[in-house]
Design a protein that fits this description.
Number of domains: 2
Radius of gyration: 25 Å
Order of helices and strands: HHHHHHH
Distance between the termini: 62 Å
Largest sheet: none
Shape: rod-shaped
């Protein structure tokens, strides 16, 4: 009788340990998959950012000469017009806004993103187009225009000011 109770107890312990081991294995696999997906996602983001087409848009933005939104409109036309300046700003600001949403929602880790992108691509682009975006917000009474781009800029600046190193 004691042998049967002992055998049942041992089998229950083994079954319980198997379930615990299975759960631990699943959690480890889930973490690994999540990290792999995040890495893949950031690599794809970087490949878009590093493409010739995107580079051309960034260079178009950096070549613009203006002092403020009114000066931009005078030199390049209204925001809602079909011009290379408007297209470049729209493409770059939309892309970086999408990245900003992913960071804001913690779909990608800002520190991982910062390790790969650094601050310069975000800072240079935001600081160049900030007067235009602020002008668009004011003109259209919409303070949320490209807010995720600004959010991303602020998050990257926090890391830069805190002296977060890459790696």
């Amino acid at each position: 009788m004691v042998d049967i109770v002992l055998l049942q107890t041992v089998s229950i312990v083994i079954a319980s340990a198997s379930v615990v081991a299975g759960v631990i294995y699943y959690v480890i696999q889930l973490r690994h998959q999540t990290r792999t997906r995040e890495t893949d996602f950031i690599v794809r983001l970087f490949s878009t950012y590093g493409s010739k087409e995107f580079h051309d848009m960034v260079m178009e933005i950096q070549s613009l000469q203006f002092n403020d939104y009114e000066d931009f409109v005078k030199s390049y036309g209204p925001w809602f017009s079909k011009g290379p300046a408007q297209t470049a700003i729209y493409v770059v600001a939309t892309y970086l806004s999408e990245v900003g949403v992913l960071v804001h929602r913690k779909i990608i880790d800002i520190d991982f993103f910062y390790d790969i992108f650094g601050s310069a691509p975000i800072s240079v682009n935001w600081e160049k187009v900030k007067p235009i975006i602020l002008g668009i917000r004011e003109q259209h009474h919409n303070p949320s225009v490209f807010w995720p781009f600004e959010y991303l800029y602020n998050e990257v600046k926090k890391r830069e000011q805190a002296g977060v190193s890459h790696g």
